[in-house]
Specification:
binds 1-deoxynojirimycin; about 425 residues; single chain; alpha/beta; TIM Barrel; nine-stranded parallel sheet; three-stranded mixed sheet; 14 strands
C-alpha cells in the first residue's frame, strides 16, 4: 500500500457555511430564506460544527489524519461593516487550538463562497471597494490569529464566478437554439452537472426577473453579486486583486505563513480530433490567465473533481455508460493526477490538493475514488512535482450550497435529527495512507 511521508499534509476539508450552522449574517443565509430562492433547502443548523468541532477534529485525529482545512466566516467575524466580533475570532482560536492538541495542522481559508450581507449591499464581488474590505478583514484576522497559523488560503475557488458565467452562457445558447437537437443526439441536457459545485443554474435563470425586487428589499441592490454569481471579466480580476491585497497584509504581519489561493480545475481532455482549441481555451480561462496574479505565491490550492471532454464542436457528453456521481458529473478520480501535472508545468510554487472528492451514497466507491486519486498524487511526487498535501472533500456530509443536504461527499455521515456523527470506512482508509 502507498504511504506518504510523515510531513505530507493529509487531511480533510470543510467550509464554514456548509458545516457550522446558523450563519445568519451571511448572503447565503439571506438567499436561502428568500421567496424566490434557488436553494433546494436552507442550511439552518447545518451539521452544528460550530458547537461540535472538538468531536469532529478528534475523529480526524483518530483516523490518522494530520491536517484540517476549514474556513473562517467573514460574516461572523465582521457582521457589520467595520465592526469586528471578538467572540467569533476567539471561537476560531479555540478551533485552531483543538487542532494542535490533536496533532492536526490547521489550514485556514479566509473566504469560502459566503460573504457578509453588507458587502453585497455595496456591490459585492463586482465592487472595487471589496478589495479594501477584504484586506481590512484579513488584517484583523491575521493580527489576532496569524501567530497560530502556517497555511492560509485567501480565497476558495477564485475562478468560480467566471466558470459559472461561462456555463450560464453556454446553457443560454443551448436553451435558445439547440436544446432539442442536443437532447436528440444524447448530449448533455443538464448544465448544472458541468460545474464542480452544487448550484441550480436552471432555476436561477428562470427566476431572474422575480428576484430583482426581492434583492432590493433584502440586500438594497437589484442584482446580487455574491461569490458564485456570474462574474464579469472585471470582477474576475478584482478577485485576483483581493487575493493580492490579502497576501500583502499576511506577509507584512506574519511572513512565516505560507499563502495561496485555490482554483477549481477540470481535467480538460481532447476526446475527438478537432477538440484541441476548445480544450486549450477552457484551460486558459480556468487556469493560465491567472498566472500573472498568483505566480510568486507560496502554494496553489488545486481543487478537482472530474474531467471535461472536447471534440470539433466544443464540449462532448461523458462516454456512454460512464459512472456518474450524485452531482451529475463523471466519476473519474484519474483527473487529479492529470490536473496536477498540467498545473505544475506553469506554476512554480508548491501544490496542495485543497479539495478532491466524490458525492456518492456508496462509500465503497469513495474508497475506490481515494485509492485512484492518491495513487495519482504519489506518481506526481515520485516524478519530483512538489505536492505537499491532500485534503479530501469533505470531512463530513454537509450543506452542498444550492443543492442542499442531498449530496453526500463526507468521510463521516451525520444524522441531522440528532447531529450524531457516523464515521464511514473511507475516513479510516484515507488515514491509512500515512
Ligand atoms: C468546491 C467547493 O469549494 C465546495 O464548497 C463544494 O462543496 C465542493 N466543490 C463540492 O461541490
Amino acid at each position: 500500500m502507498i504511504k506518504f511521508s510523515k510531513d505530507f499534509l493529509l487531511g480533510a476539508a470543510t467550509a464554514a457555511h456548509q458545516v457550522e450552522g446558523n450563519n445568519t449574517n451571511s448572503d447565503c443565509w439571506a438567499m436561502e430564506h428568500m421567496e424566490h430562492t434557488s436553494y433546494a433547502e436552507p442550511s439552518l443548523d447545518a451539521v452544528d460544527h460550530y458547537n461540535r468541532y472538538k468531536e469532529d477534529i478528534k475523529l480526524m485525529a483518530k483516523a490518522g489524519l494530520n491536517t484540517y482545512r476549514f474556513s473562517l466566516e467573514w460574516a461572523r467575524i465582521e457582521p457589520e461593516e467595520g465592526h469586528f466580533n471578538e467572540e467569533a475570532i476567539e471561537h476560531y482560536r479555540d478551533v485552531i487550538r483543538c487542532c494542535k492538541e490533536n496533532g492536526i495542522e490547521p489550514m485556514v481559508t479566509l473566504h469560502h463562497f459566503s460573504s457578509p450581507v453588507w458587502l453585497i449591499g455595496k456591490g459585492g464581488w463586482e465592487a472595487t471597494s471589496t478589495v479594501e474590505d477584504f484586506a481590512r478583514y484579513t488584517r484583523y484576522v491575521i493580527e489576532k490569529l496569524g501567530s497560530e497559523l502556517h497555511y492560509v488560503c485567501t480565497i476558495n475557488e477564485a475562478n468560480m464566478g467566471l466558470q459559472i458565467a461561462a456555463i450560464a452562457e453556454r446553457y443560454k445558447r443551448q436553451m435558445m437554439a439547440q436544446m432539442a437537437k442536443v437532447q436528440a443526439a444524447g448530449g448533455k441536457d443538464d448544465a448544472d452537472g458541468t460545474v464542480q459545485v452544487g448550484i441550480n443554474l436552471q432555476k436561477m435563470m428562470a427566476d431572474q426577473q422575480a428576484t430583482a425586487e426581492e434583492n432590493k428589499k433584502v440586500f438594497g441592490v437589484e442584482k446580487v453579486e455574491n461569490f458564485t454569481s456570474m462574474r464579469t471579466k472585471e470582477g474576475d480580476i478584482l478577485v485576483m486583486k483581493a487575493h493580492q491585497a490579502a497576501k500583502a497584509v499576511i506577509k507584512e504581519l506574519a511572513p512565516h505563513i505560507q499563502v495561496g489561493l485555490t482554483l477549481s480545475l477540470h481535467d480538460m481532455q481532447v476526446a475527438e480530433e478537432g477538440g484541441e482549441p476548445f480544450a486549450e481555451k477552457e484551460w486558459e480561462d480556468e487556469f493560465t490567465h491567472y498566472l500573472p496574479y498568483i505566480q510568486g505565491d507560496d502554494f496553489l490550492g488545486v481543487q478537482n473533481y472530474t474531467r471535461s471532454l472536447f471534440g470539433p464542436n466544443g464540449g462532448l457528453p461523458y462516454p456512454e455508460g460512464a459512472e456518474m456521481t450524485q452531482m451529475n458529473y463523471e466519476f473519474y478520480p484519474e483527473a487529479l493526477e492529470h490536473v496536477i501535472r498540467k498545473v505544475a508545468k506553469d506554476f512554480k510554487g508548491d501544490l496542495i490538493v485543497t479539495e478532491n472528492g466524490v458525492a456518492t451514497s456508496d462509500d465503497s466507491r469513495r474508497i475506490a475514488f481515494i485509492e485512484k486519486a492518491l495513487a495519482g498524487v504519489k506518481n506526481c511526487i515520485d516524478d519530483g512535482i512538489p505536492v505537499k498535501g491532500y485534503c479530501h472533500w469533505s470531512l463530513m456530509d454537509n450543506f452542498e450550497w444550492q443543492k442542499g443536504y442531498s449530496m453526500t461527499f463526507g468521510l463521516i455521515a451525520v444524522d441531522r435529527t440528532t447531529q450524531t456523527r457516523i464515521p464511514k470506512e473511507s475516513l479510516f482508509y484515507l488515514g491509512s495512507f500515512r
